[in-house]
Amino acid sequence: MPSIQNPLVSIALCVYNGDRFLEIQLNSLLEQSYPHIEIVAVDDCSTDDSRQILQRYRAQHPERIKVIENETNKGYVKNFEWALRNCTGQFIAFCDQDDIWHPEKISKQVDQMPGHLLVYHDSQFIQEDGTTMDKKMSDVINMVVGADPAKLLLFNSVSGHSCLIDRQLLQYILPFDPDHFHDHWTAYVALNVGKVAYIRETLVQYRQHQSSSTDILNRRKKLDKSYHENRDVKKLTRELNWLKKCQSFSQNKDQAFLDTFVNLFETRLDTYFSFQYAQFIGKHFDRLFYIQKKRKSSRSGYIYRQIWGLRAKTLWAKFFK
């Protein structure tokens, strides 16, 4: 039975057409050393053998696995919300369908939970076939710790598969907005209303393939030439929508900072030059771009490029298309 020392941990596993790797993931969940877990698996109308796999595992482990089968497809983000709403544990772990968890993952994260609303860890990239890529998440980006939400305004270091949250965070993060990544939002909110801890160990083998929900290594972007067409317009518009979502959160630590940043960012989309925005970026560069592994020598060049507004970028693209 769960206790104060070993509270129940719910694993929110979201599934959609994941039969290829689902059994490997389920086995790694069942092999967790932590004694008190429940696996809440929500299938989002899969058309492959995912449901059959889940039902078979539930029959074998009825005391540990609960399976929910959606009647209509909710989509990736809303399916995670539904999974979280069905979790009963004091702590909740986000889980994708195609990774491999280290046996000590949950145990190590629970040990770090006191005083934190969210604990996450490093991850090891693996190929589609499971072979290592000899690269960790921390090799690609800097990992955020502490309680400064500004570090997550433009980039995210907290991947869902690495998250363990205290259930009290649910009152702030739900409902999820399907237009934004649920893990990014969860981490941003956690930094505003509490603290985030980071474990430097790689506790998940994070599978990279074409159907992955995220593309942190930018492999698909490099292959897809159409991605770069109108990239500035789409990228900046998407970022503005995200910033406005953050701005609307009622528990922001520094609302004045956020209001100024969003206003300057939005103005940049309708001007040729944006000197004030570039100045703001330069002043707060270490916070806003903390996650990016940029050399100090490239910093001034990057800030200079922020002077150009979207109108100038669009005009430039027309002349040199």
UniProtKB/TrEMBL annotation:
Keywords: Transferase. The keyword Transferase applies. GO terms for molecular function: hexosyltransferase activity. Pfam families: Glycos_transf_2. This is Glycosyltransferase involved in cell wall biosynthesis. Residues 10-120 form the Glycosyltransferase 2-like domain. SUPFAM superfamilies: Nucleotide-diphospho-sugar transferases (SSF53448). Transmembrane segments: none annotated. PANTHER family: GLYCOSYLTRANSFERASE (PTHR22916), UDP-GLCNAC:BETAGAL BETA-1,3-N-ACETYLGLUCOSAMINYLTRANSFERASE-LIKE PROTEIN 1 (PTHR22916:SF3). It comes from Dyadobacter jejuensis.
